[in-house]
Amino acid sequence: AYKLWILKTISETWNLFHEKFTALWDKHKDGPGEAYLPGVYNNAELQKLAKVRYMEDLFHDMLGFGAAKMIRRIVGVAHVEDFESIKEPSKRAECERKALDIAKTILKERRKFKGISEVISVIENVDV
Questions:
Q1: Which are the contacts of 126, defined by CB distance < 8 A and separation ≥ 6?
Q2: Which pLDDT score is estimated for 128?
Q3: How far apart are CA 105 and CA 33, in angstroms?
Q4: Which among 84, 91, 105, 106 is most buried, taking Cβ atoms within 10 Å?
């Protein structure tokens, strides 16, 4: 139940962020043109392409940051209570290994993911 909840939360968080961010982008698309050259601001098709590309890059950056954070919280000094609370060392090590495998996959393959549902599918396929 917890795994389903956390995966649903991940999906909902990204989707809500994407929705709100792109809505703000659209609301302010006729602004002063500080982020892109006037040629982009004056061309609706280029504006749309810029937004799509920006969101793709942001998504991939988010995946990379999240994966790196997962790795750091497992192998670094700042551990997470979720793993630390597992008393049996072999079980904790197994869980940490699976989390590291997920993080490694996401980090190395992040540019291949087209949406959060693909990331969720990778995580769902790990037996926890």
A1: 98, 101, 102
A2: 62
A3: 38
A4: 106
Per the structure block, which two tokens stand in for 115?
Answer: 């949406």
**Domain annotation for the chain: domains and CATH numbers:** 2-124 (3.90.1200.10)
The string of pLDDT tens digits covering residues 15-71 is 999 999 999 988 887 766 677 777 777 788 998 999 999 999 999 999 999 999 999
Rounded CA-CA distance 128/122 in Å is 12
Model pTM?
A: 0.88
Q: Which of 75, 65, 48 is nearest to 107 (CA)?
A: 65
The two tokens of residue 125 are 């396929």
- Rounded to an integer, what distance in angstroms lies between the CA atom of residue 63 and that of residue 5? 19
Distances, alpha carbon 85 to alpha carbons 68, 74, 82, 88, in Å: 22, 13, 6, 9
